[in-house]
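[SOLVED] Predicted holo structure with fe (ii) ion

Edit: marking solved, answer below. Original request kept for reference. I posted the sequence and ligand SMILES and asked for the 3D complex as structure tokens.
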Amino acid sequence: MIDIHSHVLPGIDDGAETIEQAVAMAKVAVEEGITHLYATPHHRNGRYENERSAILEHVAHLNTELQQRKIPLQILPGQEIRIYKELIEDLDRDVFTPLHHELKYLLIELPSNHVPAYAAEIFFELSLRNYTPIIVHPERNSEIIENPDILYEFIITGALTQITASSIAGKFGKKIMNFSNDLINANMAHFIASDAHNTDSRGFHLVKAYERVQKQFGIDMRYYLQENAELVSQGKSIFTPQPSYIRKKKFLGIF
Ligand SMILES: [Fe+2]
């Protein structure tokens, strides 16, 4: 199993703090059946800056450590980029880390409470340059929860999305869990990933999430989501089914 989003690299963001914590996370990942774990540290989120060259060094270091300890997990380089106005200008500076060098899929994080007005422009500019944004955990963005059509428009113009396993497993509450299901049901989910930060409060829960998806939507949906992560790691682009709009549920017949 491939997990495309985690904060396993020690000491560079709010994920693992020490090499021992990183190793502990790696062990849990292996128990979950993960063979390849993308390390996707925060970049430009207001607290952390992690450019490509530094990420590659940290990944190589952690892989060596895991090999020495005979832990069968491969760490792959990635990055979680907070959207910012000058993002396109920085594409030429080689500071970003796509999930595959040929595929150029980038994990892009929106602020949690709104969607910036310039986001659509950035996604469009990325697509012109053959980059594909994967919007991480849209199910936790309060503006998208209120108005899912915003996400629909991004997807129609080529953006992909990654739902966090803990959201599906109910760790962020019922509202976010239900909205995650709405997104899957509307073909607005392309990946599930752990976004694991540690082994307890922000763990993996990937198996549980896939099991829930299978139970609720059938085995084909589980395989679709699971295989998309594998395809990306192999540099193959994914199939994107036509999304549908999410209609707000009627509340006491008021709407
Ligand atoms: Fe993350």
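OP edit: The pocket of fe (ii) ion is lined by residues 5, 7, 80, 195 (CB under 6 Å). Thanks to everyone who chimed in.
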